[in-house]
Amino acid sequence: MSPVAVLIGPPGAGKSTVGELLAERLGVPFTDSDSIIEADQGRAISDIFLSDGEAAFRVMEREAVARALAEHDGVLALGGGAPMTEGVRADLEGHPVVFLAVGLAAGVRRVGLSTARPLLAGVNPRATFSALLQERLPVYRAAARHEIATDHLEPAAVVDAVLAALSPEADRAGR
Ligand SMILES: Nc1ncnc2c1ncn2[C@@H]1O[C@H](COP(=O)(O)OP(=O)(O)OP(=O)(O)O)[C@@H](O)[C@H]1O
Ligand SMILES: O=C(O)C1=C[C@@H](O)[C@@H](O)[C@H](O)C1
Ligand SMILES: [Mg+2]
């Protein structure tokens, strides 16, 4: 048992939105590492950041991702920062990882000023988002088999692009 697709990318890339649509199209379940952690902990990610700190969250995240990679048979979306943990990157090897990319303008527009994203809740979310993209871009690229630029695509079109990217692999795997 392992996911048919693993979506990674920065906040606002559309991992949750596209992931749900993709799972619907494929007729498989969808799950999100953030939701797994929230269900395990019985509290919101923003509360975990506030009470326990980011480092503790990253430990929970690595454990949740490892479990989902081993047990989840559908589409799996990872938290935006998950691939920044070395252990997560090691666990991702061999999985059909797709990087949903988004540029600064579209990313900031999509994320808005939501306080649900603790890392972007500071005084200058645009600058924070820009720094985050710069730091993470090479890491996302190295961890993924495919990259899809989502800035000018509606979610349904991103799903089409993910399916097109993954279909040769699915053919080889006899799916
Ligand atoms: N391709 C797209 N075009 C336009 N809007 C989009 C697209 N993908 C997602 N959105 C919108 O952007 C917002 C963020 O999307 P979503 O929550 O799916 O991102 P995410 O990658 O899961 O972010 P996070 O890492 O914070 O969980 C939502 O309001 C969603 O409707
Ligand atoms: O980009 C990040 O580091 C994060 C993204 C969200 O999905 C959550 O996992 C959390 O808010 C951290
Ligand atoms: Mg999400």
Automatic annotation (TrEMBL):
Binding site for ATP: 12-17, 117
Residues bound to Mg(2+): 16
Co-factor: note: Binds 1 Mg(2+) ion per subunit.
Pfam families: SKI
Binding residues annotated for substrate, in chain numbering: 34, 58, 80, 136
GO-annotated molecular function: shikimate kinase activity
Compartments where located: Cytoplasm
Highest taxon above the source species: Bacteria
Pathway recorded for this protein: Metabolic intermediate biosynthesis; chorismate biosynthesis; chorismate from D-erythrose 4-phosphate and phosphoenolpyruvate: step 5/7
Keywords carried by this UniProt record: Amino-acid biosynthesis, Aromatic amino acid biosynthesis, ATP-binding, Cytoplasm, Kinase, Magnesium, Metal-binding, Nucleotide-binding, Transferase
Enzyme Commission numbers on file: 2.7.1.71
Cofactor(s) required, per the database record: Mg(2+)
Coarse class of the protein's main subcellular location: cytoplasm
Reaction equation(s) it catalyzes: shikimate + ATP = 3-phosphoshikimate + ADP + H(+)
Family: Belongs to the shikimate kinase family.
Assembly and interaction partners: Monomer.
Task of the protein: Catalyzes the specific phosphorylation of the 3-hydroxyl group of shikimic acid using ATP as a cosubstrate.
PANTHER family: SHIKIMATE KINASE (PTHR21087), SHIKIMATE KINASE 1, CHLOROPLASTIC (PTHR21087:SF16)
Name of the protein: Shikimate kinase
Organism in which the protein naturally occurs: Actinomycetospora rhizophila
